[in-house]
């Protein structure tokens, strides 16, 4: 921030130029799109095409993919005129495996300036990869995915706790049902069928002719 005395003089001389300078500074910060902002944030919406491409990778394989892009990029940055570093063979088993798991890796590299050439990606002679832009962009993307991975882990933990809570609730209800049934006690004695004795006062159906044939 500017010192108050300097700021006062600047306003007197420039007549509000400091306001325009502050506004342009905020615009530059917004354009940089630092990692870690939640989706929907105004700064996150101002990501550069390269940042967007580097963040389009599958979360499960993002770090491995970025490690490969980082290695290929640093090779060019350190040896800008070395032709072998300016050609990436997509048929290379290791590279092919990464591309198969994260096809958008090719899109990210094309955003950096690589162009398809048969089964290869080639960096044209007029394209320069810069550490402060491309390597830093990759580092930024790695930080982004680390935070996303941590957020995903937390979501899974919360989901697991929710499942456990549902199971506990089900067990609780089952226990309450068991206790209620136990509290009702055994079936009452009056509802149990009793065997009638053979005493002299007992009248059977046969005694009044029920169930006997007329000829008998």
Q: What coarse outline follows from CA principal-axis ratios?
A: elongated
Radius of gyration (Å)? 40 Å
The tally of beta strands, per DSSP, is 3
What's the helix count?
Answer: 7
Strand content: under 5%
What does the largest sheet look like? Answer: 3 strands, antiparallel
Runs in which pLDDT lies below 50 for 5 or more consecutive residues are 1-43
Overall description:
The chain is mainly α and 216 residues long. Helix content is 56%, strand content 4%. It is built from 7 helices and 3 strands. Strands 1-3-2 form a 3-stranded antiparallel β-sheet, covered by helices on one side. The radius of gyration is 40 Å and the shape is elongated.
Secondary structure blueprint with pairings:
Layout: H1 4-14, H2 17-32, H3 49-54, H4 62-78, E1 87-89, H5 93-101, H6 104-112, E2 115-117, E3 120-122, H7 131-184
Antiparallel strand pairs: 1-3, 2-3
Helix pairs in contact: 4-7
